[in-house]
């Protein structure tokens, strides 16, 4: 039995959107030239590129939920150009330059779609801050500076007084600013792209696929009220790729959580005293991500959990504890805004690998996948989905050759219960070590 997404219904980004258009579901037997599972960043990009390359083909894009209800609509709204976290530590400069080129190709593609279709998603080229609170964080920043010099990318230090004028808080001692990151409203961006798919792409939502089998040269995708037959299947299913029997014991399901406020009033904005529309990620990877949106909401993101049963792994008690942790982080930074409530707290599941390797390739004849984004889904999902479509039709490009060179096979995980114990222990240790940065 395939375990389906089990997301909470309290994602602030999604709840801020206007009501969705009427849904079209999978019904009856459908024959398609290509089927794409998962309508997040990877699936949307794959379906669009297939339509461009094969304008006469019938392409079905299928999702178990509504578009933007899943992981792609739940992130913190960063589209990051730099190699991220552990990828930035790679010893081969050429490897990192390829990652940089892939990420920037994704950003250019997303910006083109936003401009072409006038997608209202707070898209903005404002860069991002990497912030530090204490000595541990500053040590990470100094190491980050070294990596940026090696990469040859622009950056500059921002000291506490100048940083406070932007963030509206003196909580952070220092930051490094990098200019290439874009910010956006992820649920609005994903839905906007889905609303402007090419004419030969049919979007089927709330259409969970319960089983997958091969018969002859056809793949059969069985849903509750219909089925799809196709010779070529593209999986943009992230962590759920393992539910179809692929990359078993190689993907770790992790959930990260965020809370945000309602929009600040004019009086609250005056007390806040900072700028609108900025984003800060922690120098210490286990620290707190902080955003002020263009529409006056403050977002706090931290707290990581191993979720072997996805959303079903998160109890109401756990959710309340996470929100309390977020509240403390908020009040540490903005004590003068103690009267501003959180309106939403949500989680999003994604895939990481123990060796921090992304999978991209053909799983078996006629099945292609991009899986394991290691926490950078917007840019990586977009470019890997695009190139997965090119691979599926036998195309070739410099970017396709690059992505093949920087991806590989996620390493095998230990069996349960050792895996769960190890992951939970590692998360607890990271939180304790990073407690000064939370």
UniProtKB/TrEMBL annotation:
One of its GO terms (molecular function) is oxidoreductase activity. The keyword Oxidoreductase applies. Keywords: Oxidoreductase. Residues 33-391 form the FAD dependent oxidoreductase domain. It comes from the Bacteria. InterPro entries: FAD-dep_OxRdtase, FAD/NAD-bd_sf. GO terms for cellular component: cytoplasm. PANTHER family: FAD DEPENDENT OXIDOREDUCTASE DOMAIN-CONTAINING PROTEIN, SARCOSINE DEHYDROGENASE-RELATED. This is FAD-dependent oxidoreductase. The lineage of its organism: Bacteria, Pseudomonadati, Pseudomonadota, Gammaproteobacteria, Aeromonadales.
